[in-house]
Amino acid sequence: MEGKRIIETFIMELINNMEKTQNWPDVDIKTYSALINRLNDERERISKELTECVMKQIQNKRYYLNYCTYLNNIYSHMPYYYRENIEKAILKVSKELNFLYDIDVTRFIQNLTVILLEFIIFDYYERRKKERNFDIFKNRPRLKAIFGQQPCTTDTTFRRIELIIRDFFSPDTKVLFVGDGDFCSLALKSLADFEIHMLDIDREIITFIESKNMGIITHTVNLAKGIPKELENYFDAVLLDPLWDIKGAEMFIYPACSSMKKNKKSRLYTCICPVVTGDDHGKLQKMIIDKGLVFHEIIKHFNWYELHANKNYSELLNIFHEINKEYIKSDFMNASLSVPFATSDMYVLGFGRVNSEG
Fold first, then answer.
1. Of 207, 214, 229, 302, whose CA is between 20 and 30 Å from 2?
2. Over 50: is that where the pLDDT of 182 sits?
3. Where in the chain are all domains bearing CATH 3.40.50.150?
4. Model-level pTM?
């Protein structure tokens, strides 16, 4: 993990230079949030002024190039040493002008500020892992096949909420979990003091979350009937793991979109399994685009599900093991039926075109 160590060393030097502190690895979320906000403001200032500064540099270097060309012309009789230096200066400033005229180069330099922010976020994101509290999952409610529940692994639960912590820093952040059989709301509340809501149709899940007394706002909601009016256009971040078929995904994603603030900073995190959606996967992507959403990230195999932890699933597989044993007699099918985990992708979505407040 040489690359990771290089990043950690780089970030430590950067933070110590900026903050004059030696305790960055133990910095609290408020200090971290303040730093990120300050760097974001600086990035926006650079973005606004960069083009203007580049144009000034172009003007200055063009003047210098003309001057060098003039010298090269009028002093052609000078010794070769002097003319060689002038020609080198002409080549150098011409190359610099080519860089400055290239819009892609300017955009790359501007994006380095984004990369730097992502380095800092990565560093903090990695260090937060040691704070995971797996005790919150003790005595969790049993699975209910009627609701299509297939909880992810506890590690996946934390990795999901760490995406939210990666993207949001302000304590004013409002987060909604649309269905929360994975108890992501508890995991997030254990790491960040955001305003956190969850909604579910399963009253046992809601009671379990309420029993933790962590200040999570719960809502008993049947998504087939939509979401309460007061939850519309309210949340900065919304996370959901919908039913993987196209109709189930639509039933979750539509109300999730309604609950999001209509600005470019809001995010929707949804789990999608292309293998299950199959031929409908294109329809699902079109539906997402038609809702005004754009794809910020698609993280392959992000979510993991322990298949044999689900008793109903195990009973189902036993039937097909018997069919294979008696009729098909395929080692490949036998191995396939014994796969211990399933995975799905994580889609990080946001609004593209929004109103002026975005």
1. 302
2. yes
3. 134-351
4. 0.70
